[in-house]
Structures are given as C-alpha cells and as structure tokens.
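Re: that chain you flagged

S.,

Sorry for the slow reply, it's been a week of failed gels. I finally had a moment to sit down with the sequence you sent. For the record, here it is as I used it:
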Amino acid sequence: MDIAKIAAAGILTALVYSLVRQIKPEIAPLVILGGSAVILVTVSGRFADASSTVNSMLELAGLEKENISILMRSLGICIVTQFAADICYDNSSSSIASAVELAGRVGAIILALPMLQAVAKLALGLMK
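Prediction finished late last night. Pasting the structure tokens below so you have them in one place:
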C-alpha cells in the first residue's frame, strides 16, 4: 500500500472541499464522499490481501477458522463504521454519526454471538 498516494488523495480532497465549500456549499459534502470512497476502495483491496495471509497462517497454526473469520469481519465492520461516522461528523451530522456508530456496535455484537455461545457452552462444560 502506497501510503503517500493515500495521504496525497486525502490532502487533495480536503483542499478541493475547502474551495468548493466557498463556491457551492451544497455540493461540498459530495467531494468528501467521493474522496473518501476512493481511499476506502484502495484500502479494501489491501485488506483482502491481508485476509488471505491470515488464513494461510491459521492453517499452519491449526486454529479454528470460524473464530478468526468472525474477528476479521468484526474488524471490517469497525473500520467501515468509523469511516462513515467520521464523514457524518465532518458534515455536522453528529446525530447521524452516533446512529451509525450504534449500528456498527450492534452489528459486531450480532456477528460475535456464535463465538459467545461457544464460550458459554465451554464454561458450562467446565462447571459440570
């Protein structure tokens, strides 16, 4: 991942946003959304590479793929949620940002329920 290109895209987006906000404030949020989408797409390609590397390491270690898969998807939910909430905060929509953050938290909890259920079964088995 070329972080310099991503940083340059972020700075360019911020500069264009500042200029557009003075001329046409109603379309300025679209500039941020477009720049953010470009950066997110760039990073998501690298996330897929990292996921395949983690999977190969899991096979070598003999760990359960299901639990790691849940953790990786939860991480994805957290990243996307934070990204969306930050865009909402930047556009003075803190109530929407809070709702997005809440949805992300609920999504991560729902995703982790099978793992929590397995831990509860293990604990009950140890108690008997």
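What I noticed first: The CA atoms of residues 5 and 39 lie 9 Å apart.

Talk soon,
D.
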